[in-house]
Amino acid sequence: MQIPYIVAALRKHRLATFLIALQISLACAVLCNACFLVVQRVQSTQMDSGIEEAALGTVKLSGFTPDQAADLNARMLAALQGIAGVEAVSVVNMVPFGEPVASAGVRLDQDGKHFGGVIDFYVGDAKAVATFGLQLLAGRLPQADDYTPIADTVPANPVVLITQTLASHFWPGQNPVGQQFWAMGTSFRVAGVVRHLSVAAPGGGQSADPDWAVFVPAVAGPQLVGKYLLRGRPADIARIVEDARAVANQTATDAVLDVEQSRTVPALRASYFNSSYVMALLLLGVCVALLGTTALGIVGLASFWVTQRSKQIGIRRALGATTGDILRYFQIENFIIVSLGITIGMLLAYGLNLGLMRFYELPHLPLAYLPVGAVALWILGQLAVLAPALRAAAIPPMAAIKAV
After folding, report:
1. What are the TM regions of this chain, as residue ranges (predicted)?
2. Are 176 and 136 in contact (CB under 8 A)?
């Protein structure tokens, strides 16, 4: 076995060995955490909002007074319903990936001792559930008499639709239908459970989970006005929203069209997650640059050692060492150095993740990322040392001895 001789040789070059191992350890720590962050970002962009996004668009108006609500809603609903291809129009307070409007802390007991978390409250008229396309799992949908006027932010003591994720968090192992919770000075009773309903700003607010949202039925009026949800065929929805913008400008001359919020829901999603895509690309760029720098360091060190050891290589070749023996020597040497760096790097990766968890509230780094990072660096090390090792193995014995 060559390992004892390789280790003995590395001891004579402690500084160079330590520096390249340190570079590899830093690469391992950053690579594991960066890959984890990239996966987290990409997964967040693929979340299920619970609504039929491809068929939905929104129009938002502002700059009007509450006493205009009834007339404005009537005019806008009639005008928007008249657009070719529109299947349904409803009044809502917000949509996923749009502007957050209503969120509050929830208590699971009337005395307010059991805090459930911060959730989003979607409020919509009698057509909103169907327009959103929410999928009912248990209980019932709101009935006609469940739609009541809004007192302040929500109706007084309303029934709600709650997501299955939120139901499991509030009442684990229990039937959520009929349960109550309290927020904003009123009580809410669960009428039904839907599969998903994303908060308006997933990952950006105080909600611990993207599905921490409820739907509250209400009658459109002074507190529910100006935000309109349109439904149509996915192939037509972009054109429908463009037409809706024009209709809004003609119909509501006494209001201001919010162009940024008057878009298709897929466009709102793309805009909302744009920063996540940019961050993922930046992190991937950092990983590539770091791996490239590490590979160059390995190549440089191996090339330097090949030059230094030309005489020893020539002597070994003269004594019968084959090309494969020389090649294996450098590969094993590189494997030992990389393994040392990976061992230190795994500890650094764990420590770096603890710091990110503490200061940026990121989740714990799964252990599966450590072996993935180790394998990537082992492969990188073997590829990087291959060219210098092949050059060393190709040195003729006499030429190597005479060159020194």
Report:
1. 277-307, 335-356, 368-390
2. no
Cβ proximity of 73 and 219 under 8 Å? no
pLDDT digits (tens, 9 = 90+) for 79-119: 999 999 999 999 999 999 999 888 999 999 888 889 989 99
Q: Write the DSSP symbol of residue 241.
A: H
- d(C-alpha 51, C-alpha 56), whole Å: 9
Question: What does DSSP say about strands 86-91 and 227-232: parallel, antiparallel, or unpaired?
Answer: antiparallel
Check if the beta carbon of residue 215 is closer than 8 Å to that of residue 120: no
Helix (H, G, I), strand (E, B) or coil at 160: strand
CA distance 195 to 168: 12
Mean pLDDT within 185-192:
94
pTM: 0.79
Sole residue written with tokens 């911060």? 118
Structural domain range at position 190? 53-272
CB 291 within 8 A of CB 380: yes
Domain boundary among 237, 272, 307: 272
Which among 272, 274, 260, 265 has a CA at the least distance from the CA of 240? Answer: 265
Instruction: Work out the number of other CB atoms within 10 angstroms of the CB of residue 131.
Output: 23
Q: Can you give the pLDDT at residue 361?
A: 63
**Inter-residue contact 198 to 47 (CB < 8 Å):** yes
| Cβ–Cβ under 8 Å, residues 146 and 175 | no
My answer on whether 69 and 191 are in the same domain is: yes
Do the Cβ atoms of 282 and 33 come closer than 8 Å? no
Domain match, 232 and 156 both: yes
- Residue 231 has, within 13 A of its CA and on its CB side, a CA count of 18
- pLDDT tens by residue, 119-174: 999 999 999 999 999 999 999 999 999 999 998 888 989 999 999 999 999 999 99
User: How much is the pLDDT for 206?
Assistant: 63
pLDDT digits (tens, 9 = 90+) for 57-86: 999 999 888 888 889 999 999 999 999 999
Residues 14 and 149 placed together within one structural domain of the fold: no
